[in-house]
TrEMBL record:
InterPro entries: P-loop_NTPase, TPST-like. Keywords: Transferase. Gene3D superfamilies: P-loop containing nucleotide triphosphate hydrolases. GO terms for molecular function: protein-tyrosine sulfotransferase activity. Pfam families: Sulfotransfer_3. This is Sulfotransferase.
């Protein structure tokens, strides 16, 4: 199968929204191959946007393999070097990315009809993706922002880098962006997937995804994500443990145990309208945090002053 005979998809969403979980489910299908998370396709664009000259191939490869997560993909450097040389003359930047995908497919699942790039932040550069690959489509994972914050807190606490203020602010800004993207027509074909639907009604949700990306439904898609092709690098598995399991509805409300009442209330206050837009549960309890909203006016003011940006 030539590089022009498989479709390209992107998976994105706010970090900790379930993009790795979705990647694992889709990789259970014989016709789908999604790379491990890496933004190499964007990181080198500014330097090589005009293409890669024959005498620049060595430098391009050095830059590419200096990206830690790209190295984790295990793509044979010599094979990539030969493919770049065989192209002859200037290699357009999009073609260089296609060649990377070609090799990854050949090494892992040669008959894949859909090859994907998974990068949460891809959601926030859709125009760039469309310019790079006009034929590509996009799967956008949308998770309750409280669930995102709870998962982010767990990850950063393990690393000793959790800052409540910074984390809440990031989730707030990104989730508002998600709503704007959902409301407005995009250049790239995009399917929005609610995390709660994926874990509570996995078959019907994945069937819709299959239609969107043009593959035939298979029961294998409901298997746990422990297949070899999932290929989460060993030193990164600590942050993706739950992505290896089957869909579990307990994850929808797990944030209630992961966050304290202040974190929940602040997030609910800042994103009340956005929660309502997606039909996500509104506050069901009253505490000093949810009763005295003046607390949050002070909070957002201090947040604005400390970060040097406007809250609203």
């Amino acid at each position: 199968m030539s590089s022009e005979q498989y479709d390209i998809i992107f998976i994105g969403g706010i970090q900790r929204s379930g993009t790795t979980f979705l990647r694992g489910l889709l990789n259970n299908h014989k016709d789908v191959l999604i790379l491990y998370e890496c933004a190499f396709y964007k990181l080198l664009y500014n330097k090589y946007s005009n293409g890669i000259e024959k005498d620049s191939i060595g430098q391009f490869l050095d830059d590419l393999y200096n990206i830690r997560r790209f190295r984790l993909l295990g793509i044979d450097r010599q094979i990539l070097k030969e493919k770049l040389r065989q192209h002859g003359g200037l290699v357009p930047y999009p073609k260089s990315i296609r060649l990377v995908l070609d090799i990854y497919r050949e090494q892992n699942k040669p008959e894949a009809k859909v090859v994907g790039l998974k990068n949460p932040n891809a959601l926030f550069h859709l125009k760039f993706i469309h310019e790079l690959f006009p034929e590509a489509s996009f799967l956008n994972m949308i998770r309750d922002p409280r669930g995102v914050l709870g998962s982010l807190k767990k990850k950063r606490t393990k690393r000793g880098s959790y800052d409540r203020r910074e984390a809440i602010w990031m989730v707030y800004k990104r989730f508002r962006d998600v709503v704007n993207i959902h409301k407005n027509k995009q250049l790239i074909p995009i399917q929005h997937i609610l995390y709660r639907d994926l874990v509570s009604n996995p078959e019907s949700t994945i069937r819709e995804i299959c239609k969107f990306i043009g593959i035939i439904w298979s029961p294998d898609l409901l298997n746990s994500n422990k297949s070899e092709v999932l290929n989460i690098p060993e030193n990164e598995r600590w942050q993706h443990g739950l992505a290896l399991e089957k869909p579990n509805t307990d994850r929808i409300s797990a944030y209630k145990d992961e966050l304290d009442q202040a974190e929940i209330a602040i997030t609910e206050y800042l994103l009340k309208d956005e929660l309502d837009y997606f039909g996500m549960p509104q506050p069901t309890y009253r505490t000093t945090y949810t009763t005295y909203w003046e607390v949050f006016k002070i909070y957002t003011y201090r947040l604005q002053k400390s970060l040097g940006v406007a809250c609203f």
